[in-house]
TrEMBL record:
<protein>
    <submittedName>
        <fullName>Quercetin dioxygenase-like cupin family protein</fullName>
    </submittedName>
</protein>
<feature type="domain" description="Cupin type-2">
    <location>
        <begin position="34"/>
        <end position="99"/>
    </location>
</feature>
<dbReference type="InterPro" id="IPR013096">
    <property type="entry name" value="Cupin_2"/>
</dbReference>
<dbReference type="InterPro" id="IPR014710">
    <property type="entry name" value="RmlC-like_jellyroll"/>
</dbReference>
<dbReference type="InterPro" id="IPR011051">
    <property type="entry name" value="RmlC_Cupin_sf"/>
</dbReference>
<dbReference type="Pfam" id="PF07883">
    <property type="entry name" value="Cupin_2"/>
</dbReference>
């Protein structure tokens, strides 16, 4: 059983991620987290080395991926392929649950190396 605790909540300038399942919390292969992104916020353009599945539970988001921009509303699920540039924008505040393999890392254009997602570890 995994319980939410303050050390599993990470706030960035763009969103708040609450880590749920992850290797540090008992999962072997998968990680999952809850995202809240306030209206008007946008994440940086980036790619992730693993497929991600986003299920929106409130609000809506705009995602630009592979040169296409789509609107995703609450109740819909978005599958983002690995190693493809994407950017998430909150036209209104949204909440989502995200799942991916726990070994995924992020690359940002113009930056050397990769970043881990601390809420997914």
């Amino acid at each position: 059983m995994i319980s939410v605790s303050p050390e599993n909540v990470i706030t960035t300038p763009n969103a708040t991620m609450t880590g749920l399942a992850a290797p540090s919390r008992g999962s072997v292969e998968l990680s999952s987290w809850h995202v809240v992104m306030p209206a008007g916020s946008a994440g940086p353009e980036h790619s992730v080395s693993r497929e991600q599945v986003w299920t929106l539970t409130a609000g809506s988001l705009e995602v630009t991926c592979e040169g296409r921009t789509e609107q995703v509303a609450a109740g819909r699920t978005l599958v983002l392929p690995p190693d493809v540039l994407r950017r998430i924008h909150a036209r209104e505040t949204f909440e989502a649950h995200v799942v991916m393999r726990a070994d995924g890392v992020v690359s940002v254009p113009g930056e050397e190396g990769t970043r881990v997602l601390p809420w997914a570890r």
